Amino acid sequence: MTTNRRPLMALGLTFAVLLVLPFVATALDSTATISLVTRMMIYAIAASSLNLILGYGGMVSFGHAAYYGLGGYTVGILYAHFVSGDPLFGIIPGTNQFLITLPAALLVSGLFALALGALSLRTSGVQFIMITLAFAQMVFFLFVSLEMYGGDDGLIIRRPNELLGLRLRDELTFYFLTLGFLAAYVGLCGRIVNSRFGMVIGGIRQNERRMAAIGVSTYRYKLVAFVIAGMGAGLAGALMANHARFVSPDMLHWTKSGELMIMVILGGMGTLLGPILGAISLIGLESVLSGWTENWQFYLGPILVLIVLFARGGLYSLIPGLRGNGRD
Amino acid sequence: MTLVLEQILNGVQLGVMLFLLAAGLTLIFGIMGVINLAHGSLYMVGAYAAAVTASATGSAILAMLAGLAAAAVTGMAIEYVVLRRLYARNHLDQVLATFGLILFFNQGVTMLFGRQPLFVDIPAALSGAVEIVPGVPYPVYRLLIIGVGIAVAVGLYLLITRTRIGMLVRAGATNREMVRALGVDIRLLYTVVFGLGALLAGLAGLMAGPITSVQVGMGEQILILTFVVVVIGGIGSIRGAVVGALLVGIVDTMLRAFLPTLLRGMMAGAEADALGAGLSSMGVYLLMALVLLLRPKGLVPAHG
Question: What is the C-alpha separation between B172 and B262, in angstroms, rounded?
Fold first, then answer.
């Protein structure tokens, strides 16, 4: 929006580091790092998608884990039917082709976001927060009770999906695949934010009544943004299902929605780089704290409170030259 | 037929629990404009304090006092240390900070009492059953909970419509700034209202102890149902909390009691039970969706 190129440079630098990192990790013989950073990047996709509605659109959705989990379960359920051989609902054959499971995951999470968004967006403010949370919890309970897909225990995906002869089981291959998706999704977010559509969404965040007075049908714009965000989370879920080779109701749990929100706020909402930084630091913090103590949440909780109370603007605003260049 | 009556009473009893939480949540939101996710933690604190006191002393009265005191003190401490700084902030900040508090409380309680659920006995004097209609015995303890709920509802009604504090509460809910401008010590009012909400949450928690097991995470489970209640009833409205709580309590209980049996007629037992449990826990959310379609502001909206 401005002539300031620093945010773009910071973003480019982050991706450059992510591109070089696996080679350094391989040289240092640390494959665990590659797996950890892959997880960070998957969460970064989910957080970026939430940022689209939360940061740019001002919609405080507390149910984002639902779309993430649905994306994961789509991959898991299609795989389960591929293994067992009997088709889903009697007509849809299972598959392990990523080129099919990924669009399916996007479709399922997108349709779900459409349905829940259409209902939830009738409200705003606190009600919106409570409703998105409650609907996500509904999805959680549904999957806990689906015994045929593992119920509480979840589904194990023995082999990752196949994609054009790539070995997705290979940590390095999957790392670069995830990096590619992250770059593509962040690029898409950048295009959306700077498009006319993005301007309208930003305008709604600042003053919905004014946008409506100009003649914008705000409900439709918000709903479209909600669906795009839901599909982004579905993408992250599908990747995670392949990375962890496991899906469980844990992916849908409301604390997951909370974590995604924290990533966005921690990194700096309403910026492209923020959610990536947030995901990297929260997952990093978790793995460091859980290495020290089993009771890491006991320390993470107060840290969060302190961040909310005293560190406004997130990590993004701490980077020299970027302060104040976030959302305005 | 007797089973239906029994389940309706169970539903009312769950409704009372939900009302005690929803009343506090909706009051706090109405007056201070704060969404407090840690409200469920106060419920948990009340339940744990009562359970631990009961097993240490064997006295139900002491357990009750301990539960109420622990919840109220914890609530006021939260208000003083964290929430007071969040009144002027947006809902997002409030959600995140209180989410942090939940992590803190849940892990803290786990560290103190372990992951194993605690079980509390119903006090001996209340452990019997009475026949509400001939041939239908119903536990005294559950009847007592219903009675307490009615008493609290009446008490809250009197407090809000007949007393000076109630007047300030109503005025604060209508126009916070104006009340402050008129020279009312709004901070004190906030702390009092927050303490009251915490007390009610603690009351619900300590009464729930002997019925459900006392464990970490119990707060969030009921908190999310409470959100459904508040959305259905209309946010900021005590009357809405009564209506929503009873509706959600009865619908949820009836579905849980009868849906698996209905499904068992159609499929294998274990699967029917699991699917029935899942569908019945979705029931209240579908109810919420329906209310939203027809009345986006809830059944009994607070103002106008």
Answer: 49
Judging contacts by C-beta atoms under 8 Å, the chain B residues touching residue A115 are none
Q: Do B224 and A254 touch (CB under 8 A)?
A: yes
Take residue B220 and report the two structure tokens written for it. Answer: 């969030």
Specify the pairing of strand B136-139 against strand B129-133.
Answer: antiparallel
Residue in chain B nearest A312 by alpha carbon: B93
Among the partner residues A133, A262, A304, nearest to B227 by beta-carbon distance: A133
Chain A: closest CA distance from residue B16 (Å)? 20
Q: Do A265 and B96 touch (CB under 8 A)?
A: yes
What global pTM score does this model have? Answer: 0.83
DSSP string for residues in B255-283: HHHHHHHHHHTTS-HHHHHHHHHHHHHHH
Q: Hey, where are the domains in chain A?
A: 31-253
Cross-chain Cβ contact B220/A254 below 8 Å: yes
Which among A273, A82, A289 has a CA at the least distance from the CA of A182? A273
Give pLDDT tens digits along chain A (328 positions): 445 677 777 788 888 788 777 778 777 777 778 888 888 999 999 999 999 888 888 888 888 999 999 999 988 888 887 777 776 666 777 777 778 888 888 999 999 999 988 888 887 777 788 888 888 888 888 888 777 777 778 777 777 776 776 776 777 788 888 889 999 998 898 888 888 888 888 888 888 888 888 888 888 888 999 999 999 999 999 999 888 888 888 888 888 888 898 888 888 888 888 888 889 888 888 888 887 877 777 888 888 888 878 777 777 777 666 554 444 3
Complex-level ipTM: 0.79
